[in-house]
Amino acid sequence: MFALLYDGFRLGVLLDPSMLVGERSFKAVMEYVDQRNLRGYGYSFYIPERFMQLLEEESREMMFFIDKAKSINISHLRDVANILRKKQAIQAYSAQGDEAEKYATFHGNLLRETGNKEITEILFQEWVFLQENNLMVSRIKKPFTYFLRAGATGIEYKTETEAEEHIQGLKKLAKWTALAGKPTKKLTEQLENAIRGEGFFLLTGSE
Q1: How far apart are CA 45 and CA 187, in angstroms?
Q2: pLDDT tens figures, 140-177
Q3: CA–CA separation, 70 and 72 (whole Å)
Q4: Which of 134, 198, 196 lies closest to 166 in space, CA to CA?
């Protein structure tokens, strides 16, 4: 059913950096990762590789993802993230080769909108993951707003859909959950002729 990062046991889910840099959301992620399996679905968690690199530098770009939250200690986050990577509890994701080439125009659009190379690289890695591997969660709506500004088509929904079974657990973890690719196919078949732009995603918010 799912693309590259679904191996029959675990769904690949990209964590937006906002999930890690906020004190409360970081704690929730750690608890969730520790559980490893909810409602019959296992999740393999990924974070943008460029964000991991910025952690080492304690870059000012972190503020983009901290937004209005109380920030976690970045040194602590870096140490924990490195431990989780070694345990393969969280993996780094980087768009490379044919995947990056496929969305080259979108990369240029993002750079125009953000005006920042580092933020662009993180958002681009998120976009490619979302399009190719279907699931992304975020504490803030900002990444999805930039996707739209860069030419994507998005539909925000509040009612249950056929795709809900795959994300019920994730909606307890994050404020915003986005789906793209195969899980949304049945929902978008009738809209395909009307959809224009660089790509498509569904977005749902939770309380």
Answers
A1: 25
A2: 999 999 999 999 988 877 655 555 555 666 767 778 88
A3: 7
A4: 134
